[in-house]
Amino acid sequence: MKTFVYIDHFKGEVQPASWEALGFGKSLGAVSAVVFGSGVDAVVKSAFEYGADEVIVADDAALLDFRVEVYASTLSSLVSSQSPDLILLPTTSRTREMAAMAAIDLNTAVLTDATGIEVNDDQITATRPIYEGKLFEKVVSSGRPQLITLRGRAFPKPAQETGKTGKVTKVEARSEALTTVEEYSVAEGGVSLNDAGVIVSGGRGVSNNPSLQPPAGLDEKQAEIWRAHQGFKLVGDLASVLGGAVGASRAAVDAGYIPYSNQVGQTGKVVAPDLYIACGIS
To answer: CA-to-CA distance for 90 and 110, rounded, in angstroms?
Structure first.
């Protein structure tokens, strides 16, 4: 298995979890460390000493400060050209954002905060905590490339072998990477949830009307969303009659039934209407 390990650092100060990720990568076989930045010779030297067989370096002034667009684009370009099976990263605020953006470029998935990884043939199984650490889930992936961030202190830090060296491969930074907003719109009119005296909210249950027959040719998920849209039309009609606003549960928003701007409650808007009507919310 061809494995890359991204070494996360801030102007030369390496996150310790990077070496833990490198140590795990080494347990799978030959491993290449990936180092981005400007003036990173000391980081490259340490990467060899902590076990890297090869260090892939993008050393460019454009990488002096962390800009996620540039870093993610440089990573996705590298992965596209060299086709590793597995890219490991320590879990930090920077790598979470960078890995997610690179995964979109690569049309693949990213698993975050893994505390254990098993590799069997072409199948990778990652263990990670959920529900604030109360439970653990196992996520199986057979897609390639696979990006995984590793939780700090979940894997042992390898011993440092002073003076060890290896192959250095230089790559170019994608310094021209930009963020472009292609479209942005805000619905005009209607009653604001924050100010509404009456709110009519819908949940996942609005998609459960058996009398509604979706158009032919829709798959199961598309048919579910079609029924939900019809249900929310009724919710909207009632809200309009009452002079109120349309709200939604988190479950309905997560299912793609209605935009996030309508979410009420958990991680959504806090409201204080005189009348609140819940439709299809358990």
So the answer is: 12
Retrieve residue 214's tokens: 């979706």
Q: In which residue are the tokens 């975050």 written?
A: 112
Token code pair at residue 114: 């893994």
Number of Cβ within a 10 Å radius of residue 254: 12
Q: 3-class DSSP state for residue 200? A: strand
| Residue 190: predicted pLDDT | 64
The contacts of residue 207 (CB under 8 Å, 6+ apart) are 224, 225, 227, 228, 231, 255, 257, 280
Give the whole-angstrom CA distance, residue 10 versus residue 134.
32
Length of the chain: 282
* Domains of the chain: residue spans and CATH: 3-170 (3.40.50.620), 198-279 (3.40.50.1220)
Q: What is the pLDDT of residues 175-199, one digit of tens each?
A: 876 666 666 565 555 677 877 899 9
pLDDT at position 189 is 57
Helix (H), strand (E) at residue 245: strand 245-248
Compute the distance between CA of residue 90 and CA of residue 254 in angstroms, rounded to an integer: 28
Bridge partners (DSSP) of residue 150 are: 90, 114
CB neighbours of residue 44 within 10 Å: 21
Tokens of 94: 């920077």
* AA letter at 253: V
CA distances from 160 to 70, 91, 163, 203 (A): 31, 21, 9, 55
pTM (whole model) above 0.70: no
